[in-house]
């Protein structure tokens, strides 16, 4: 199973994610994510034997307790890129500072700690709360992407974070499809 832990955006923000993606419509070399599957990845676990799902379950539950996580509001907006404006592989919209970013980061860091304690691989980079809206397959549209990222500051929307989910990613010819394996209320 290819697994990750996420905070899913509600269906009510699907059109706003799609509108944010439209700002990059003329950028060649971009592959857009499915707005209906928009989420904040809290921890990518990768290929995981089904027998390890109880370890993931324990890690997420312990992380929620460790972070003293309770439902909160998060606002998604603004743009950024990974790993840098000179070499773009991912275009994203962020969870805004002061509007859920601290809570999301604290929870993600707790999930990371608990998962690593149970033998899962540590992340190689620090956590930035974001929603991936596109992936850059080649650099043809890099200048347009950089311009939009530096000039645009869209507000995608605010939503109530009440749970995190363990998701399975199934790769298909039409792109990845995500299915919820378990839900963990805050």
Automatic annotation (TrEMBL):
Signal sequence residues: none
Keyword Hydrolase: yes
InterPro entries tied to this protein: Cyclic_Pdiesterase, RNA_CPDase
SUPFAM superfamilies in the record: LigT-like (SSF55144)
Motif (HXTX 2): 130-133
Active site: 39, 130
Motif (HXTX 1): 39-42
Gene Ontology MF annotations: 2',3'-cyclic-nucleotide 3'-phosphodiesterase activity; ligase activity; RNA 2',3'-cyclic 3'-phosphodiesterase activity
Gene3D superfamilies: Cyclic phosphodiesterase
Catalytic activities: a 3'-end 2',3'-cyclophospho-ribonucleotide-RNA + H2O = a 3'-end 2'-phospho-ribonucleotide-RNA + H(+)
Leading EC class: hydrolase
Domain of life (superkingdom): Archaea
Keywords: Hydrolase, Ligase
One Pfam entry name: 2_5_RNA_ligase2
UniProt-listed Enzyme Commission number(s): 3.1.4.58
Membership in a protein family: Belongs to the 2H phosphoesterase superfamily. ThpR family.
Function: Hydrolyzes RNA 2',3'-cyclic phosphodiester to an RNA 2'-phosphomonoester.
The protein, known as: RNA 2',3'-cyclic phosphodiesterase
Taxonomic source organism: Halogeometricum rufum
């Amino acid at each position: 199973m290819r697994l990750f832990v996420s905070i899913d955006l509600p269906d009510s923000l699907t059109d706003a994610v799609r509108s944010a993606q439209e700002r990059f419509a003329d950028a060649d070399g971009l592959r857009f994510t499915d707005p209906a599957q928009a989420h904040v990845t809290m921890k990518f676990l990768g290929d995981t034997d089904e027998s390890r799902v109880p370890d993931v379950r324990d890690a997420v539950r312990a992380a929620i307790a460790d972070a003293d996580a309770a439902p909160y509001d998060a606002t998604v907006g603004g743009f950024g890129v990974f790993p840098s404006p000179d070499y773009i592989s991912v275009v994203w919209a962020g969870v805004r500072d002061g509007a859920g970013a601290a809570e999301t980061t604290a929870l993600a860091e707790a999930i990371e700690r608990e998962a690593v304690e149970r033998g899962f691989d540590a992340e190689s980079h620090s956590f930035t709360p974001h929603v991936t809206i596109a992936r850059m397959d080649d650099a043809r549209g890099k200048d347009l992407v950089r311009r939009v990222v530096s000039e645009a500051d869209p507000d995608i929307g605010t939503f109530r974070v009440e749970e995190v989910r363990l998701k399975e990613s199934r790769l298909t010819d039409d792109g990845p499809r995500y299915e919820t394996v378990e839900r963990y209320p805050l």
